[in-house]
Amino acid sequence: MAAAASLGAANTAVSKEVKIEIGSFDGLRSWNSVGLSRRRVNFHSVSSSTSRTNSLIRAVSSPVKQETETKRSKVEIIKEHSNFIRYPLNEELLTDAPNINESAIQLIKFHGSYQQYNREERGGRSYSFMLRTKNPCGKVPNKLYLTMDDLADQFGIGTLRLTTRQTFQLHGVLKKNLKTVMSSIIHSMGSTLGACGDLNRNVLAPAAPFARKDYQFAQQTADNIAALLTPQSGFYYDMWVDGEKIMSAEPPEVVKARNDNSHGTNFPDSPEPIYGTQFLPRKFKIAVTVPTDNSVDLLTNDIGVVVITDADGEPQGFNLYVGGGMGRTHRLETTFPRLAEPLGYVPKEDILYAVKAIVVTQRENGRRDDRKYSRMKYLISSWGIEKFRSVVEQYYGKKFDPSRELPEWEFKSYLGWHEQGDGGLFCGLHVDSGRIGGKMKTTLREIIEKYNLDVRLTPNQNIILCGIRKAWKHPITTALAQAGLLQPKYVDPLNLTAMACPAFPLCPLAITEAERGIPDILKRVRAVFEKVGLKYNESVVIRVTGCPNGCARPYMAEVGFVGDGPNSYQIWLGGTPNQTSIARAFMNKVKIHDLEKVLEPLFYYWKRKRQSKESFGDFTNRVGFEMLQEWVDKWDGVVATRPTYNLRLFTDKDTYEKMDELAKLQNKTAHQLAMEVIRKYAAAQQNEKGE
User: Fold this and answer.
1) For residue 76, which of 65, 64, 63 has the smallest C-alpha distance?
2) Using an 8 Å Cβ cutoff, are 20 and 381 in contact?
3) pLDDT in tens, 537-588
4) Catalytic residue annotation
5) In the CATH scheme, what is the code of domain 416-491?
6) Are 147 and 160 in contact (CB under 8 A)?
7) What ranges do the domains of the chain cover?
């Protein structure tokens, strides 16, 4: 079955299971004092010609001031009175207090920062700020990487965090150092503008630096979309570099698309032609990719963009998907994760206009009264895709063509060594939970600085070293291995696809552990695999978050752990390895010490009852939750066998017992510890041979 059809079917299946009715919302209406006419949307046919003539749609700026005014959230009022995201943040930054007030907290998000404090400290709050960069396609120039590495040591907590949206997070920055850190990033070819807040976030694209037309076109398109939807009113540069604008020249097609108002998308004479004073109702996420490459978790985004090429590999246009999103609220079934669904096809010259039309449809109609329902997925769930498409076509000025057929999707990590196609090599490195620190951090800096390498960050919290000459492969491989950055065949397969959000101690939303808890969870899953007889090279996609907001996209995992209480998780099952099916909640309030009681029977029966090459996620969906629950409820444990030492690893019992004693000190089995030793020894030997 073609992927386009199967994705639509998958989302339809989800929609049938969760029948939700969300109250209507009238969208934005202009203030009478602004003098803009009330928006009119007529659902008439739209010409498919390329001309961009005036339509009946008029852009509007903010809710109308009537006797009965539409309810708005507190954040909407803060944005309205902020002078385009300046006040009162500009005043709060000048005070001697270590923190800022609630209004400023909301505004600094647009600048790419969150106020945090260490939730484990007692006797008062020690405030700091997390900064998040914005790196379309995950591209990080050499100078920016070295700057971020320095800033982490000088002003942060000594580590860099790679995110699930191809960016850096820098934790622990004090308020008094914010301007120094921000200006350093800006002057080093970087930015944090729009990395958080109610606007378009970082645009994802495959991080692999292939010299292929389709990959390069996808990355160029991601850059252009990011530029199109970057705020224009200058608040960011006013705040951090005293109004100095440090920006590269924009492609003329971006400027043209942004300024085009032939279909009423823009705010005339506004410093924010697309966003206006109110920006968007909530965060907005976009990913661009090529057919088969689902390294970007395409269907979790508000907009998914897929490059379509002809038989010669020349880009012709794009398939568009809309309405994905992960966030939800526990025990509130009207909130839910959702897969994006097909919208249609556009020729390549129209992509910026089509994306802009979708963004404006959400801007004008997304809910601004209750932020739990403000993401575009709720608008589409309420309207249905046909009505949504019709309104978008009004702003686009054309009808969408039917989506093109696509091959099946694959998850691609790009770990290990690869040819770029231009004579150079790139090396993808696995980083557990995206945390770069200690010897790993020192070694990466030395390599990146010595060889003047640019890097790419991946949506799976990993890093790619780019532009490596073949003569450099051996010394770089050796240095990486000595720092614990092993080639993927020497890393536990469970770790290779696992992800976790930061959670405790700094995230204010965390309910339980994620990043600090996932190493132990993965070790315990590996032990369960061994206990039930699963092979070492078998794996499942595991993702852990400390709350239901879904930053590590747990609802796409084969096994998702979502924090729902202290040392407690909601367990989600049913995602697939290629990230095209959404998981469902299987059990609530599973205490961390009880995980084996759930996982053992599930993996035991997967081992014995699966079909040929059936993934764990597909298995759980085929068998059904009723049967899975019965297995868990009736589980008595794996049939015990007489203890013995492993003859494949240990030549004598004495060696086994010594290894077992050492392993227990590390909360491992003798087999696990022995395999780690063997893998590291093999890696060292391979490095010496220059492989």
Assistant:
1) 63
2) yes
3) 999 999 999 999 999 999 999 999 999 999 999 999 999 999 999 999 999 9
4) 132, 201, 283, 285, 501, 507, 547, 551
5) 3.90.480.10
6) no
7) 209-411, 416-491, 497-634, 653-687
